[in-house]
Amino acid sequence: MSDGPERLLMKISAQALEKSHRTVQSYEGSAREYNAIVAEHPLQPEIADAMRRMMQFVPTGGTVLEIGSGPGRDADFIESLGGVVRRTDAAQAFLDLQAERGKKGELLDVITDALGGPYNAILAMCVLIHVDRAQIGPILRKVFDALEPGGAFLVSMRVGEGETNGDCHTVYWAKDLFAAQLQEAGLRTHWEMERIGRNEEAWVYFLALRPQ
Fold it and tell me: Rounded to an integer, what distance in angstroms lies between the CA atom of residue 79 and that of residue 69?
């Protein structure tokens, strides 16, 4: 029997919650600046390809949960491919930005909140990098529970060691160690990609499936 949301919350350390809160507050203050930076760079072909791969597992009109929607560009792209996106973010400032252009989003903290569902797919781009290492396992189990059997999970993580503890808490993962976390949560890796992003940052992308 899986743990309910209340029990999962009890297992989260005060330190992890404080790091998460600090990161969310950082985005609350910099959302418009972040949006401007994103707007200056077109959607990279390899990232668009990753989302197309995810959408191969989503029927027309199927539901996609986006965790950490940010300015909403990835959600826009998913919708252009026929998906129905539940846009969520832990920062109200990002939801306000999307509302200004007619896009509705909801507050959702992936660490403390239930994910709802079931969904045909879940998208988490550039967001689980801000999750305390000890909370990745419980979150991936929530992802598993929120997916339909055969559903897809697309996630991107920063590659490296250790973590940074400034205003924006960032955790780095070795590719094989994160892959093991996916497997332990019951998610089967279907495809993966490594790429170098802006500022020479190393990223890894996983498309993982909940078995039928």
Answer: 13
pLDDT digits (tens, 9 = 90+) for 57-89: 999 999 999 999 999 999 999 999 999 999 999
Give the separation between CA 87 and CA 105, rounded to whole angstroms. 5
Is residue 124 within 8 A of residue 154, CB to CB? The reply is: yes
CA pair distance 34, 184, nearest whole angstrom:
34
Query: What are 171-188's pLDDT values in tens digits?
Result: 999 999 999 999 999 999
Token pair for 111 = 């660490």
- Burial class from Cβ neighbours inside 10 Å (0-12, 13-18, 19+) for residue 133 reads middle
pTM: 0.92
Angle separating helix axes 14-39 and 92-99, nearest 10 degrees? 30
